[in-house]
TrEMBL record, chains A, B:
Residues 179-379 form the Peptidase M24 domain. It comes from Blastopirellula marina DSM 3645. This is YkvY. InterPro entries: Creatin/AminoP/Spt16_N (IPR029149), Creatinase/aminopeptidase-like (IPR036005), Creatinase_N (IPR000587), Pept_M24 (IPR000994), Peptidase_M24B (IPR050659). CDD domains: APP_MetAP. It comes from the Bacteria. Residues 38-169 form the Creatinase N-terminal domain.
Length: 393, 393
């Protein structure tokens, strides 16, 4: 069978690779050592569970632990064994590099056509392979999506490792941080384009198109996520076939993803370049949030407490309401821990990458604003990752 | 808790709706009658299995059977009962309309923050709800992705309905055909832009950006899929930070999706506007494929036979190889049945929407071409859905 040529919107199936042997090409390249270290951390975190193996099938967990980012149309799997080795089951052919000791393949495409029974095909390869590995009594899996093709055939106790994986994902490694920073640099370019083009009478769809293009140029490749909010004169929402109006505020909450890692930050731009006194006063109050974050956030600080403190700051605004979270972690999913939110009890820890997005909304503000910065928690404070203009004009 | 404002790249969570009561707004709107009819067809197809219920959790099957297209970041579920009723479990709040008799919700977001345990949250609501419905002995589910949160709690025999769903998806309903045609109209605009801008020295990334923008403008909203091939002087692949070269052929295989439905067709453009004699001769041979399709394809024709016939046609080319499928169905996934491919044994049937994509590749052609049209199988032949220019210039 011919191998497939199509990359399926996964621009980096053949990521440049940094291995311990040889020199680093770029901090954005695949770092197999980092993937191996994450495998080890997963085992450490699950030490009490006495698992014989861990099977992951979600694309982002395979990327996290093994390295390559597979396309959404494929159904790979990875098995980590308690002896520290790992096996990847890849679609069609082995990737150029992977943090795996063994790589098997399943037939994802026949003469290039994607099969609709890929998960079964991958599972069949996996089950056959496990026969050669001896009895596995206890296996960690992702409960949300673990295929019945596997669970009905495996004579093993299955333990949910998804919560543990999400806990581990919270602390970003240097290779992850590099990709997050690149994703955020994309948003910087997008706001530059936005500030150039926004005026009354501009189509939201044209703004969307121009900003997406700016991110693609910055990344030098397709985005792996397009989000977030492109509706003008609204709290949020997708771009519409609608023209911006004089006097409105345009909340641009941008969340493009680079090689799987999601940026997320927000600027609000006065469409006519002349914010009203009320809009400007509101902006000044919202901006106090960031000074407070810089002053107070360090490892050990309660996220819920920070949320409540910012509720206090924003309540000083003469008009408008703040009625959503203050922020959240970012990474391989748009929202991760830590949660700057009264519904969770997280505490900041070194290595967190999080957003702070205070907002105030009111019809008189046409119709409000949200400002959002990204931060890394360091040993004794925070580093601002979105250090670019934040004004209304 | 505040409801989330963010649409999460799902531009149509609030699709305009066409219900049997009231007038059709547009053939592109949600058609709840069509969803109900699909539910009934699913029951008919599974009549022999004597299921008490069917649970679907994949986004595209919920769209197919219930109507709304939920965002990829959410984890909804739908239950069809043997009495013909349906229940939807939606993230956060009930959608404006759904082909469901009952709508429950699960908390997907708290104060706007997406939970990472959504599948469990949705499953908990579903399990609690099923307690009130009495014993379900036999339930149809999607084996690929059915949550262990559910399968470990349901005291029922689970039957895989995914193959049946894919079979049903093959025959397109009028509401699906309308969206596919809209998706294809997007590609028509994209090729117009491509023909205007392609010349030696154009960046593949700029081509990608301009063509994506053209589709967004045509659809009047964000795409729900961005594919496919934007690499020049290559068989396929994503756009690169690379300039087109004099003498190359640019294979543009475009697969944008509109409200979940994927277009897929291809044009090949001579970068310098002056194809060589060899390139032009190859084009003429490839084009014979379409005449053959129009002449021979009707319900009952073997897809594999067609594939072999086209292999014969293309073998007349003096140089180059054809080494992939001839085509495939399109719909809610980029590749569906029928398979114009020697690895399957499909037979054309009325209602199929399929692609025909002959190609010939050789270094002397720098480096080959692929042409692809989309067709609908009618009662006695085919209707060309991609009736726009197909020349090399």
């Amino acid at each position: 069978m011919a191998l497939p040529w199509r990359f399926w919107q996964s621009p980096r199936t053949s990521d440049p690779v940094y291995e311990s042997i040889g020199e680093a090409m770029s901090e954005l390249d695949l770092n197999l050592d980092a993937s191996r270290a994450r495998q080890q951390r997963l085992w450490n975190a699950l030490a009490g569970a006495e698992l014989d193996a861990i099977i992951v099938t979600q694309i982002e967990h395979i990327q996290y632990l093994i390295g390559p980012k597979f396309a959404w149309v494929h159904s790979p799997a990875a098995i980590l064994f308690a002896d520290g080795t790992a096996t990847l089951i890849a679609p069609n052919e082995a990737p150029d590099a992977a943090a795996a000791d063994e790589i098997l393949t399943y037939e994802a495409q026949w003469l290039c056509t994607l099969r609709n029974d890929q998960r079964q095909a991958c599972s069949d390869v996996l089950l056959q392979y496990l026969k050669s590995r001896g009895k596995l009594g206890k296996i960690g899996v992702e409960y949300s999506t673990f295929s019945l093709h596997l669970s009905q055939q495996l004579d093993a106790t299955l333990i949910d490792v998804e919560p543990t994986l999400y806990q581990l994902r919270r602390k970003k490694d240097p290779d992850e941080l590099a990709r997050l920073k690149k994703a955020i640099t994309g948003t910087e370019r997008m706001y530059e384009v936005a500030r150039d083009m926004i005026r009354p009478g501009v189509s939201e769809l044209n703004v969307f198109n121009a900003l997406q293009a700016a991110a693609v140029k910055e990344y030098g490749e397709m985005l792996t996520g397009a989000g977030n909010d492109y509706a003008c004169g609204a709290k949020g929402g997708p771009p519409r076939d609608r023209l911006t109006q004089d006097g409105e505020l345009y909340i641009l909450d941008l969340g493009p993803a680079f090689r799987g890692y999601f940026a997320d930050n927000c600027r609000t731009i006065a469409v006519n370049g002349k914010p009203t006194d009320e809009q400007q006063q509101t902006w000044e109050i919202v901006m106090q949030t960031f000074a407070h974050v810089t002053k107070t956030v360090r490892p050990g600080k309660s996220c819920k407490e920070l949320f409540q403190e910012v509720v206090g700051i924003l309540s000083a605004a003469p008009i408008g309401v703040f009625d959503h979270h203050l922020g959240h972690g970012i990474g391989l999913f748009p929202h991760e821990a830590p949660h700057l939110n009264s519904c969770w009890d997280d505490v900041f820890a070194e290595g967190d990458v999080f957003t702070v997005e205070p907002g105030i909304y009111d019809e008189k503000l046409r119709f409000g604003m949200r400002l959002e910065n990204d931060y890394l928690v360091t040993a004794d404070g925070v580093e601002l990752l979105s250090d670019f203009p934040i004004g209304l004009t």
